[in-house]
Write a structure and sequence with these properties.
This protein is α+β, with helices and mostly antiparallel strands and about 130 residues long. It is about 40% helix and about 25% strand. The strands form two sheets. The protein has a four-stranded antiparallel sheet, sandwiched between helices. A two-stranded antiparallel sheet has the order 1-2. Helix 1 packs across helix 2 (about 70-90).
Length: about 130
């Protein structure tokens, strides 16, 4: 639980972002960099990236965020900033898999952990494989 001036909250969201056309564009190094970028974006929103993992074609961030944050704005920022940096830093690799200035699919999954214990969600994310 976290507290603010007039609020006590525990808001966690499990997100899934898929690469455009579900292309296998991510390497292990890119996943590590993506986690760093998303951690920085979360800090800007006074949120916390609790867990992160992924595979070649998708990522699973688990974010603890305050109630003042509009989830859609957080998601848009996570996707926009990570796309911009990953395309810039891994341009030659990314261009082989993706084109048209897109990195992530326009859609995403967002699920609150609801009644499931947070440890179960974390365990699920940890079991997602990173490419070698």
């Amino acid at each position: 639980m976290r507290t603010g001036r007039h609020v006590v909250y525990t808001l966690h969201v499990h997100l899934v972002f898929v690469t455009k056309y579900r292309r296998r564009a991510m390497t292990g190094e890119m996943l590590t960099r993506c986690e760093e970028i998303m951690r920085e974006v979360c800090e800007d929103f006074e949120a916390e990236l609790n867990q992160f993992n992924g595979e070649e074609d998708h990522v699973h961030p688990l974010v603890h965020y305050p109630p003042k944050v509009q989830l859609s704005k957080l998601v848009n920022s996570l996707k926009d900033v990570s796309s911009r940096y990953l395309r810039k830093e891994y341009d030659a690799h990314v261009r082989r898999y993706l084109w048209g200035g897109h990195f992530w699919s326009g859609s995403y999954f967002a699920g609150s952990y609801g009644g499931a214990p947070l440890t179960v969600v974390r365990q699920y994310i940890e079991t997602q494989q990173r490419p070698v």
